[in-house]
């Protein structure tokens, strides 16, 4: 029973001092004077905003990436006790004392520091020598751009960390595959691969590229597994299933989990509510929820409603009308019906209220019990303040002459009869007799006489229409489009018979209670969709660059300038490393082609295992560079130098691999000469690191002359004060 | 008939002559003898019946071709008015006949062929092709429609032959032919003056000749081998010459060629010299020949179009000097810019135009309420500016003053000639690009303020140099704010007459948007020089026209709120395209695929992926397949793989395109997917039949399956017709193959 007592408990620890030393160096280089400068540096101004929103738990929408990255930064703020009270409005603004700068910047810095030992591990797991592994880590250590990016509250270093982690754990998996498949450590690395991939994707969409690369390599390996006839069918099936679960299912679940946490955290209404649908807004605390809380759910004849357009572009707006009529003659000479204008208005207003009326009756109040309106019913819409009926007819709309004008009907006795019947078409109905529901139902209004559909055209009316948005009846392309879909946002049952009373009633806020919630998946899909489609129109920035500038480091970004001295921080790479990494990639590709061609003619220069090692290193490192770099040529968004850093990291990993390969194929004498060259080259890189160090850490104020001397390329924009 | 058709017919003739050796040489390359066995196993062994069989194949091919021509030419003359894009391509055909220069985003070959067809059939180029719905009246449009329809009709026999070659199975080929013949979409698209039938003709011809040449692989450097190889190259040039979509078939042929070469390279029985010969042959026929032909089409294009026309403004000043009728043609103007000159200033970026101003103010709320400054693509007297010194308002043209040249780095003022206002900028945000400053016309009779001063700089030159007309690339830097005059290329709203926005950008990055050149130059005090020195060489013209086309293509962005077709709509036949019927004319023509065909295609792709991966996994696991199945699976993996690749190449890139997309872009992909359907169902039914083993039943299953599919494809067609006849009979004259737009409302 107590057998375990008979033997002593022995713990054998295997400590690789290289790794320990590298970690220490990494921490030193990334954490040294972390809270300097105590001012907003470059993109911290954006990320900081989001951190504040998390602290205050206000809902926001950011199109730049999934929420994990922001949440990690916010975690730093939370641990540092940040209350979110800081106005993030200007780069260079001094942080107030309540901002825990150190802990906000800690997480990216740790990620950056751990990338150094991970580079070592990856090259080692690729089965290259300790020397090469050491070289890779030392190169990552002294890469100025990586240091700058890691020391600030930015996300690239975290992304790089997860990219490397995914790659490392996949390599560990491959190496334990041969000896002990389905062992505990095998499972651990397999799962970690999936988790790391999903974290990378969760930080920036860019992580998808690395994920796809890992998937691709895993697929090739799986294909070899299928071809391995020593394994039984069941065994192969288990292998495939395990991989599918870990590399496909887990990442999806993790990704959903990020959003779940995000939505749980951000439960209050915030600055971007307007972009979301009414149903989504109603699920947040405050904001619209405060108004719509307790509204009756089912729209009935006699209901007073506001109708919001679902498309929400160019701005979210509500169906609106007012006393003014369309001008008799437009500027371009076309005529109008001169009836009352109907527009879409982007602000809350008493003129946004409409009453749903049964065409067969005169009354504008809700019966008791209320008679709900259903899909397919014919209704009239009465404008609350003017009691005119929503109407459309065969008159060209003011700005979209191919569509029909929509107006509130005024009878001028000129043989233009009212055409004010609309058929209700609930788009997201589940049955054909579905009831029209507040907020939840998305409806179209189909005109009975002309089968035109009530639509927001998106054009701004000129001065006579107070620059509100044009609403038209669309006849030509009746296909589904969100600009034709409306939903009821505010809703109450009308009680007043008299117009005066009704006007008073319209002015009063809605009340009653009843609350409803949206499911997580519905909220997730809406949020994700809006994040992907939200448009940022600023396409120009002083420091934006093109992918071609990156390889040759023809551009830099000035991150921060000391308010009084000329101490400054730049994103600027170690140019020796950049150049030699690119050179290594070229050499690798040329050598690979050469070997491939020779192998095809059955001349094997490399033994089989060393060939496989060479190919795998290339697939992961050169491939990692390619997938993280080439897609940018197809992107239309504003690009910056820091987008290149993940690709660069992979390129740096390739460098020692190529060097070792060359050195392995040299004679003894040549090899020592080569080693001397490598050492010289590395000290050169160290020298460059040291020279650019003031711009990386921003801790030293340089004289204009020194700064001018640092401007090695015409295109580098180093800030020199005119008078000092 | 144009030569292209002749080539196609010659092709089919040759095929039959060599039919026998083709099927014996079933294998492409590599050691798979199984395919050969499979191919042979379908053949009747009796040698006597060979003649009979050959004749039968001939007859079938003739039947397929005839049926295809019959459907495409049926009531070709209706509707007798312009349908959809005929307004563009008909008009461009007319331009060739009239030899006036125009600009289009597509390469010229397709339109040249349309023009040629019109010319040969007696169309005189006088019809204006203004807008869809205009009646042709007495103009002879049938030649052009007939040309497009005959190319469209040839698609069916091409697909038939391709599938026959890939699968060695007559039923598969027949099924494909039936799918395409009875597809209403292909039918409609082939009947009008459009680029698509021409494009698809070249794509399918390239595919067919590639497949043919693959099956000649066992006799390299023989005459048929050379014939098919060079024919592939010629068709590639044709496809690229019609639309840039032709690039996709080039990628496909390229991929096929590379894998072919890779196999040859790995074949150790071939010496390196032989492999080198193979490589050279490919380079000659698939790279050099198409490039030469493609360039030749441009040479013809520029030779034919030598008169000034509506496309001038899109091109650079030097380019315009070639066109007779343009004011730069044979012109002579002063060489160096001097104070007092009247000039036009053109942006160097393609398709931006001239610096322009007019007597209209920016509307309220858009910066300061001063006179608008825009860029304008057309020539206009409002494009004229006078260049003046910043500090004096005296008339420099006064003969008592000596001529003073403008030099790099001078501070100048630009006065708008018509309105006498100065080019002006200030710290107000520009109307569209919020981060830039507004540019206006300011001052009265040339008197303004210091915000009117600009420093003129020549890019990459030293200070103090004179400024050359046309050749100097200049920038205008605003003295007070330090910003650079540029055009953002964005279209202003109605108040700006939809001209392009001009801004002053504070970002000093050197982009073409902020670089200008002086085009017209009038100064009576200076001697004129001839502009002939500027005539660009042919490679320059070629490069420039490509730049303009690419920019034009990227510029075709969907406007806000416009209903656009998304690539995922296409394969499911979600929404068609209205060809005719906007103006309540008699004919409603709607481009929509036959749902049976399209949904069958969609199903087939899914089935193909499933069955393909099952077979691939089985083979990778080393399962022993019976020879019959082995042969069939080879057909499925290789032949089907080629077709699947074709479908993917012609479909997926559209997801990445930012330009505006239409339904008809899917049709090349649809051809490939129909061929895949043919191959897949034939193979699957054969496999089914084989697994049931009992011979009579087995053959029965295969036959019944194929026949029912054939009938299915044909059956839905008349039903369609009836439905829409019913709908339209009251008001409209139905056209057999035309789909009504009302069809869309029908409950599905």
Automatic annotation (TrEMBL), chain A:
Pathway: Protein modification; protein glycosylation
SMART domains (UniProt xref): MIR (SM00472)
GO annotation terms (biological process): extracellular matrix organization; protein O-linked glycosylation via mannose
Any one Gene Ontology molecular-function term assigned to this protein's record: dolichyl-phosphate-mannose-protein mannosyltransferase activity
Catalyzed reactions per annotation: a di-trans,poly-cis-dolichyl beta-D-mannosyl phosphate + L-seryl-[protein] = 3-O-(alpha-D-mannosyl)-L-seryl-[protein] + a di-trans,poly-cis-dolichyl phosphate + H(+); a di-trans,poly-cis-dolichyl beta-D-mannosyl phosphate + L-threonyl-[protein] = 3-O-(alpha-D-mannosyl)-L-threonyl-[protein] + a di-trans,poly-cis-dolichyl phosphate + H(+)
Keywords: Endoplasmic reticulum, Glycosyltransferase, Membrane, Repeat, Transferase, Transmembrane, Transmembrane helix
Gene Ontology CC: one annotated term: acrosomal vesicle
Source domain of life: Eukaryota
Chaperone is among the record's keywords: no
Gene3D superfamilies, per database record: 2.80.10.50
Function statement: Transfers mannosyl residues to the hydroxyl group of serine or threonine residues. Coexpression of both POMT1 and POMT2 is necessary for enzyme activity, expression of either POMT1 or POMT2 alone is insufficient. Essentially dedicated to O-mannosylation of alpha-DAG1 and few other proteins but not of cadherins and protocaherins. Transfers mannose from Dol-P-mannose to Ser or Thr residues on proteins.
Protein name: Dolichyl-phosphate-mannose--protein mannosyltransferase
Classification lineage: Eukaryota, Metazoa, Chordata, Craniata, Vertebrata
From TrEMBL, chain B:
Entry's localization field: Endoplasmic reticulum membrane
Pathway(s) served: Protein modification; protein glycosylation
Keywords for the protein's UniProt record, in alphabetical order: Endoplasmic reticulum, Glycosyltransferase, Membrane, Repeat, Transferase, Transmembrane, Transmembrane helix
Main location: endoplasmic reticulum
SUPFAM superfamilies the record matches: MIR domain
One Gene Ontology term of the molecular function aspect: dolichyl-phosphate-mannose-protein mannosyltransferase activity
Protein name according to UniProt: Dolichyl-phosphate-mannose--protein mannosyltransferase
Taxon lineage: Eukaryota, Metazoa, Chordata, Craniata, Vertebrata
